[in-house]
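Q&A log
Question type: sequence-to-structure
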Amino acid sequence: MIANERGGHAPHRPSMPPGFPHRHAGIRRTPLRRRLVYFLLAALLWTGAPAGGLSAAVADCLYMTGTAGLDRTEVVIGETFTLTYTLTPGGTLTETVTRPSADIVLVLDVSGSMNDRMKAGKKQTRLEALKEAAGLFVSSIRDINAGDRIGIVVFHEYGEKLLDLTTNYGKAEQTIRNLRAGGYTNMGNGLETAERMLANSSAERKAVIALSDGANTHYTTTTNFFGHTFTIHVMDSREARNYAKQQASRIAARGIPIHTIALGEAGTGDIDHALLEQISRDSGGQKYDADDAGRLADVFGIIREVITKSGELSGIRIEQPLPGDGFELAGVYPPGTHLSGNKLIIPLPPVMYPYDAPTIDVKVELRQTNHVQEFAFSDALLRYNNACGEPSETVIPGGHLLSVVGWKDTWGNLYVGRGNGEVTRYRLGDMGKPQFTIRERDARVTDISFGDSSPAVDDDVIVRVRYEDGTESVWDLRPSPPTVTVADADGQPAGASGWVKGTATLKLEGSAGQLPAGTIYHNGDFLTAGQGGTYIARYRYQIGGAVREAAEGEVAVLDGTVSGSTVTAAALTWAVSGDPSKPVAGLPATATVKLDNAPPQAELMIVASPSGDPLDPVVRLKAGDAESGVKRITVAADSPSGNVRSLTRTFAPAPGTVTAEWALSEFFADPADRTGWIKFTVEVADEAGWTSALFRTDTDPSVKSAHFELVYPGPKGNLAADADYSVKASAVPVTVRLEDAADVLVAGRTDECASCEPVTVVKAEVKMVTVKPDGQTTVTPWTRLGASSFRVAGEGRHELYVRITDSRGQVYDTKALGKPFVVRIRYDQNRL
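Response status: OK
Response body:
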């Protein structure tokens, strides 16, 4: 970035000009009879009037003159200076002037505290006092009969427009009488609502009266939820205060004064007086205090007098041509001040008659950011409308000279070029801290500009100096590239080919300054440690996505947190910025290394077979290596019978994740070897030579070296008798046996795996549904079997069901499966 082509912006604090008169209570107008005009002509020809005097007609309608001046005659480029205008209002209002109508918005606090007593021991509440005083205010506006419009906004947790701008004073009074209080305080949203109400007003006069009895608690913002924008009101006293100031500044920017009223008993700390004072001051209004109903009514009366005064100088505007480009607003200036091309526009609030002060000081802080030269400020033009509504203007004499010297870079460091070709740099513009002086020509320095290390940054590391003879010098302030040495764990330098297993080391050194020979160094900022300076702070290096720092000559270990293929390194210096907390990187150096710092990682999953066979699940192993890549995967399965089988898959190594899977039947063809607790182990190898037997499972994130998986189809059991009695009935009771239901279903492996316990039958139950010969049906509930057999004795058709539960909670239920065991008994040997 070129310094004399760059413009920066500092935060500004819009404020009313110091000494600018606030509107105040007073007479509405001062009409005099025309016959007095002739006696006053002599008085009007006073020293403050414009050169050449004024006609009686102009003096009758008021006028204004002004002078201007600079607070200094020489500044360094980018340094702030103040342009001060002193305005002198004059004349005597001898004509009755019909003023334009005004638009007035009442912004009223109706939070819950407005229900508090106005004073201790008094019955009247703050809200009752407000209703009474505001009602009188509206009544007085009606009596003036000037067509003034009233709008009413209230605020609690948020602002509400109760009444748009209207001359229906009865409706306004009714709205005030209907006010109710409750909730918290969000004055900012009330001011925002008032600003929207006044945005489309065409009235020449506008004003806001904001009343509050407490500190702000809420602010209003918007949030986006699934593509929809919602307005929300958030409780945060600090943000609420800032929000109120922001909304007040928007009103002030429209040239609308805000008169604030602090309502409450004197001496209490509930009210944010400082906020109300700032809001009124910055907008050209006035802050008032009211601790009882009478005082509140007086305050509304005072504000009404201020707003409805007839005599005023309005539309005041200073137009100051600027002597070139590169001038910016900086610091303090009146609200609405702006630049239009190379012209400074300063709008000012109306000046009411009678005048509050004999003169008005208007201060505007500026700075020049582009050019180093002498500037002459020409005459400014003061425009305004006089009290008769007539456009008027007068010249504010100029001729002030301002000399801008030196060039500043983006950091604020100052470069001063001299007539003999010398260039001296001062750290952060401090003339007491020169860093170096360079003289490469015997010609006057005419311009210094700056360039950046890349388009993405603004660091001004390149200095370009132009001389009167047409030549130029270019200096690079950055350190030179470092020497980068990469070695393996044994200290042997690593080449550009082949992966390095384990840790490697990195050593950075040798960066130095690049300023020309003959440079005079005034301190150690641009000298290396070997030269007795502090130019090289540290070295920064990046490998993969990790960025780290090391000292000069330090052996840095490239451990498991850093991986990649290229090391990029550069020296860091704070000499360029002038601030130790803002280092700038030097020219980079690179070295290529294939560094694999960690073994691959693996995850084992046992998933159900696609065929549904519980004895043939799928064994899936997912392995990953972000550096050299997985080369081989091996899975070993150890069956309960002692058979061990390993299966292996190989891959073309590449960074990322690979997956291999086998059916359990690929390990063991015999189903007997696939039933019970099966032990799995793995081994994963990468291209760099790392091997790992550690893995995680999809059900357990902890790292392990073995996994035991229970493979078995669940409990079984069948009912049987000595014959088939489902068709031919038995003439005697029938003994029913439970078969194929061993107590131990799966053997345990607790010697290797504490949780690999045997699977046993914990409960066997039988249920019987009987249809008797007479057609009645009885149901015997599930009954736990105490032995492996039982007798069925009653006549009828018996449907028997068995339910077996194992120690893992799995259930085999013939009732649920719809598989009854049927026994018919008929003692007379007749069929049912």
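Response note: The radius of gyration is 46 Å.
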